[in-house]
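Obj.: predict assembly geometry.
Materials: sequence records (below).
Method: joint structure prediction, all chains together.
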Amino acid sequence: MDVIVVGAGIFGAAGALALAQRGHTVTLIDPGPIPHPLAASTDLSKLVRLDYGADAFYVEVMERALARWRSDPLFHETGVLFLTRAAMEGGFERDSFELLTARGHALERLDADEIARRFPAWAPGAYLDGYYNPEGGWAESGRVLAAYVERAREAGVDVRAGERVVDIARGVRTERDFLPAHTVVVAAGAWTPALVPELRGALRVVGQPVFHLVPPAPRAFTPPDFVPWSADIARTGWYGFALHPSGVVKIANHGPGTVIDPDAPRALPEGAEARVRAFVEPALPALAGAPLAGTRLCLYTDSADGDLWITRHPSREDLVIASGGSGHGFKLAPLLGDWIANAVEGVTDEATPRFGWRTPRSRLEPARHG
Ligand SMILES: Cc1cc2nc3c(=O)[nH]c(=O)nc-3n(C[C@H](O)[C@H](O)[C@H](O)COP(=O)(O)OP(=O)(O)OC[C@H]3O[C@@H](n4cnc5c(N)ncnc54)[C@H](O)[C@@H]3O)c2cc1C
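Observations (raw structure tokens):
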């Protein structure tokens, strides 16, 4: 089958690779350069965690994805720290702790003293409860994406950087050309609703601020003393990483975000820096006043229920959607390819019930998975 994949982010690259490995003739198109600097997948790092609250579906698939991540040299299994200001009595952290423990994962519950002893960069007493999960960590996402594209090329995918798809009908029209195809996979991230307008009620694009701080004492922000973390994430949205080889500590927010047009300038919302400093100074005193090496406004493609969209279009049989990462899609990279290739081939799998076509809603208030 001739398949054109629109968008070389992690969804598109993983899909193109899996389709080529199954013997399809695949073209991957992106305005480029690839990895594209504005793509959500192109970043220093992404969190890879098993912890998904009470959602057993994501825990099950992440157990499989993690097993595959472990053979990727660009994945670093440092473990992940989940902190709560108050006792863990309900909510994301408690649900994750209970579900993962029930599934046999050896999590380490922490009280304020243990947090201070094991993770000394955190202000003593700022967090009273939480746990450390030794499984999981972070992936060098931009490099992972580049590696997927390279493997796709080696598998025979015709990778076309420098072309933007402007229309889709039995193939794609780019600014220069028309390319016919049996099936088109739209994996254009935040730009997907622009290419498939009927998804405007199903996918919403929001900007999320990312900060790269330069720690005055880098050693204090390295594993095992400092690992990727979330700090009362369901209530505050704050999460971050240990020192990156480039010398920065990345901090970001997994909150509601700011609705934005993907082609609009990527300026941080007013007050964004003040907000991160208001979080950092009482929680991570050694980062107080740390210079900013850079910031980024990265875009989530949010679905209403927080689940991905990997599905055939109900009335356009030549069209498959692969998007809706909703701020948590990168860690699923090792499984994305098979899910997308299955959707192209019309094969039902464990993801179909959650990622299949569902009626776009009139009001779109995205649910956050963790
Ligand atoms: C701030 C932030 C932090 C995140 N943190 C995490 C995390 O810690 N863990 C995790 O698992 N996930 C995380 N995510 C989510 C994850 O990054 C995304 O779910 C995933 O990267 C989305 O990949 P994608 O391929 O759908 O989109 P993208 O990576 O955005 O790729 C879309 C591609 O489509 C191309 N394109 C656009 N329009 C066209 C066109 N007309 N023609 C051709 N190509 C086109 C673009 O150039 C781009 O390369 C985070 C996301 C953000 C924004």
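Conclusions so far: The first helix runs from residue 10 to 21.
To do: check interface contacts against the pulldown list.
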